[in-house]
Amino acid sequence: MLDLDAYLERIGLPEGGDIKAVHRGHATSIQFENLDPHRGVPVSLATADIEHKLVAQRRGGYCFEHNLLLGASLQAMGADVELLLARVRYGAPPGAVRPRTHLVLRVRIDGDTWHADVGFGPMSPLEPIPFGPGDEHEQAGWRFRVVPDGPECVLQVDLEDGWTDLYGFVAQGVPLIDLETSSWFTSTHPRSPFVTGLIVTAQRADGLRTSLSDWTELALTEKTPAETRVTPVTWEEVPDLLATRFALPQFGLGADGRIALVPDGGIPGGAGGGIAREP
Which positions are annotated as active-site residues? Predict the structure, then answer.
């Protein structure tokens, strides 16, 4: 059911490419964003719904949407794709055990097996890496590796304070129903940060990662392997930032001050200079 040609056009590869090119094109073309859970809209994992949202509407999404779309596209290209669930470790207190709320792909194609993930927001690898523990992999200045920890494989990134755990996973596939349960929790639970907060991220092929989030303070963060710049912003500035920095012009501020879809699909802060609001 997937329109592979439309997907490849969306990620800037109308002529296609290998798994590395597709992963990189997806990671640098489709935004990571939680605007639906933030607005109280549950996330659908049906392939047609994900394709409509991320491809036709040129929206973004979170890990389940991103990696299911990538997986369906790679399958259409002849790959064998396995779904794995991971526990996010990044930002967790020592010893904390979080639920399995992140999706990772194990992809087999052309005799190779890859760890693919375009859905970890500002820490997503640009390209897939060989599956399982092994060497370090540098991508536009960012360094990633997978290390063993008991039964789990742990993806790490090299940050200012050294190697930092991002998430851990058991290398065993799960059925889609497990993803639906995890995604429903993530997009609807009243204490889920994807419900209570805002996170929008875009990354470039040169390694710059830009995020708009209120998970600490409402700010625009621009990060490279060498430098981090944080600029506090106001909610009144958010619609224009979504349009100009993240190619998401569909949003304004609702009457309650929260992010909302613009009814006519207009551009917030358009010719009149004001911020579009829902009635």
Answer: 63, 102, 117
Closest by CA to 82, choosing from 70, 94, 96, 97, is 70
Q: Which regions of the chain are under pLDDT 50?
A: 266-279
Q: What is the CA radius of gyration of the chain?
A: 18
Terminal alpha carbon distance of the chain: 37
Task: Return the number of other C-beta atoms located less than 10 Å from residue 202's C-beta.
Answer: 22
Output the CA–CA distances (angstroms, integers) from residue 94 to 91, 261, 265, in the order listed.
9, 39, 44
256 Cβ partners below 8 Å, 6+ apart? none
Q: What pLDDT is stored for residue 264 in this prediction?
A: 63
Sign of CA dihedral 118, 216, 86, 64: negative
Query: H/E element holding 239?
Result: helix 238-246
Judge residue 252's burial from the number of C-beta atoms within 10 Å of its C-beta, 0-12 exposed, 13-18 middle, 19 or more buried.
buried
Evaluate whether 128 touches 114 at the Cβ level (below 8 Å): yes
The rounded distance, in Å, linking the Cα atoms of 39 and 260 is 7
Instruction: List C-alpha distances in Å: 150 to 58, 114, 147.
Output: 40, 21, 10
CA angle 249, 119, 182 (to 5 degrees): 105
Confidence (pLDDT) at 90: 95
Residues pairing with 250 in the sheet: none
Q: Which amino acid is at 112?
A: D
Residue for token digits 């001050």? Answer: 257
